[in-house]
Amino acid sequence: MGESGIMNDTWIIVGISIGYLLLSLLMGIIPGLKVSKSPEGYVAGDRSMNLLLLYFVLGASIFSSFAFLGGPGWAYSRGVAALYIIAYGILGMVPLYFFGPRARRMGVKYGYLTQAELLSERYQSPFLSILLAILTVIVLIPYLTLQMKGAGLVLNTISDGQIPYWLGAAMAYVVVLLYVFFSGVMGVGWTNTFQGIFMLSIAWFLGIYLPNELHGGIGPMFEAIEQEGLGNMLQAPGLQSDGSTWSWAGFSSAIMISSIGFSMWPHFFMKTFAAKDDRTMKLTVVLYPTFQLFLLPILFVGFSAILSFPGIEPADTILPHVLRNMDLPVVLVGLVCAGTLAASMSSGDAILHAAGAVFVRDGLRKFPQIRKKLDQRNLERRVIQLSILLISILAYYFAVISSTDIVSLLLGAYGGIAQLFPLVFAMFYWPSATRLGALSALFSGIIVTLIFLFSPELKPWDIHEGIYGLIFNLFSLITVSLITQKTDATVVKKFTHA
Amino acid sequence: MNLKNKYGLMYSVQKPKKKSVLRWFIVFLVLVQLSLIWPIYPLVGHIEPFVLGIPFSIIWVLLCLLLSFFGLLAFFIWENQE
Known about the structure:
The complex is a heterodimer of chains A (498) and B (82). Chain A has 498 residues and is an all-alpha fold.
């Protein structure tokens, strides 16, 4: 095939990706027309999500660029350590089986739409809500930036540089911005269902196809890895990023902290308010592990490349690298690229939507003067939309222009987000928890986590910094709550009897 | 709220039978979690035996996933019948 043939192939792949973007846009805009124009419609879809939507919203949100590019990257460079991604999700969603229905019922009764609204009512502290709003935006922006980078990278790589990185990221995220802006959470719901089904099919196909092409099957692939003397990659808990064996303490504590933090992410927890009824919420949690099962084939992609494409740096680029260097049908490559875009967009949309909603509901609204204005002129939905626009511009700035090291910010995020767990648990189950107890728990937990994140040499044992944070967090919550004045019993009862 | 559990945790359910099932369910969840990390996973996370061509370290995590799924499902069904 000549020069023009290669060009043609490139444009077929780009064409498929663009077609896919347009289809997502259509899927995202239409459902938004059906819900009310109120903040409730925009943030929680009028509390009407059924099982199918909720399952895919929660599933596809976790199936991000990180899973699609990072998952194979981990399997490729660290072996079975990549199982970490599956392991923490097995029970990570379970707390929502218990918290979710309660939060949902309180939402219906008192109009709550976010996690911080619950917490600030239970602990009688608007300050807590503002604090959480600021932390949420600080954590979600780098998360969103990474998704944009993923999309830009994919379109840039597959078009052989014809589509510059900045344009690739912009194309995918203008689509996301449009449907999130106009349709709110229903746009997120329907596109995630569509994108979820699409990328799962792609993942399964690749996870079976690549081991077959490169090694003649999944079994022969693993045997070959073992025979080449790389058995330590298949022996739990796998390797660290520097190639040495990961410690059990490191592996176990990383899984623990991620399981605890998982359900506390605002863009997950908030979806409990969108659930149609308790049964839907519970059944979504029950079915959730099936979504985790779909991560397995995407790890096989990484395993299949260990022997065939050694020495690729950084490991995260292994999937695009394999696609470019194997003689694959051009339509297939296009579909895989669309699948990667799907992974990036289906997480980015939920994050963007949550960041905007939390910023307004939990931040701005807690200032009485602003709240008055928002309610008087019915502006809340508009202001959320405006915030969504600003947040996406900011994230785009970090993705394309600024060279700030955002990855380190995100690394600390799981340790930080897990610090919410004791507060949420005590909110429903421990009547003695007080405002000062909650605030001191949150502060001490986050500060300790940050200290050990930035100075790991201070750690007494090699366990995740978030675990140290949680120890201080729990200690402060219990001791301070017991010595400070109790919260008004009628407020507490609203939660313990929800 | 009686004095007895003034400082303790509040159960979401009051019926003794439901309470005990809930307790066992939580024990089950903790066991699943411990199977995925130290101390249980190190005992079984070896390459051999291969099952369907897949190393046992991977198969074990899949088994935990299925166990957790069916456990949750059983609890959900039981709870709905009550």
